[in-house]
Amino acid sequence: MSKADHRRSEIIRILMESGTAQIKDLAVLLDVSLMTIHRDLNDLHDQGLVRRIRGAVSVEKSMLFESSYLYRARQHVEEKRRLARAAAAHIEPGNAIVWDDSSTTFHVCDFIEQMTPITVITNALPVMERLRDKQDVELIGLGGKYHRVYNGFFGIACERAIRSYHVDVALMSTTTIQGMSLYTQDEQVVRSKQAMMEIARKKILLVDESKFHFSALNYVAELTAFDVVLVSQSVDRDIVQNMKEAGVRLELV
What is the torsional sign of CA 100, 127, 229, 89? Predict the structure, then answer.
């Protein structure tokens, strides 16, 4: 993560905790000039993540904000790590895997050594940055148009690149689950996830408890389309029971 990205992530953290902050106070807290803070805030505003209010700034609570990588990366970290550890147990050395842009699957990076040698194909910039110097990891970055909110690559070029491969495993998460279906907010993200599912022999979905508390616009797939659905034990028992009755192949983590 670059210094600018780290600062902007810190700004989001501060605003999530306090709701609103004075711009001059942010400059002091982060030990940078007002000019630098204004550049950071302009960038976050352009992404639809913050709102300026007469010398102050607040988070812009919206689905766009909740979809942003800066926000998602700070949510439910320990829960995501448990899911990632369980996902890693399903991957064997020598596998080729396609890896989506979610902040949940990112944590599989922490367990990469137990899976090597391995081929990783991904559109997620944080995964590329984390794995680029790892030995025994053949890293293939998917091209396309960079999307700053999701911190990954999407679009027609990305989808074509995905479909040029055939892999052992697809690692995925989603914005939300409604009923027995996956949804996410952006059509480009939907298409990349669907393409990843098409090329994978085995599909693994990681689901933390928060996925059942949001809504999103665009349909991705059915839960039953996955070979393994890893679900946090904190998920409501009635939801888990409904998933089992619907034939979802789930594992509680």
Answer: positive
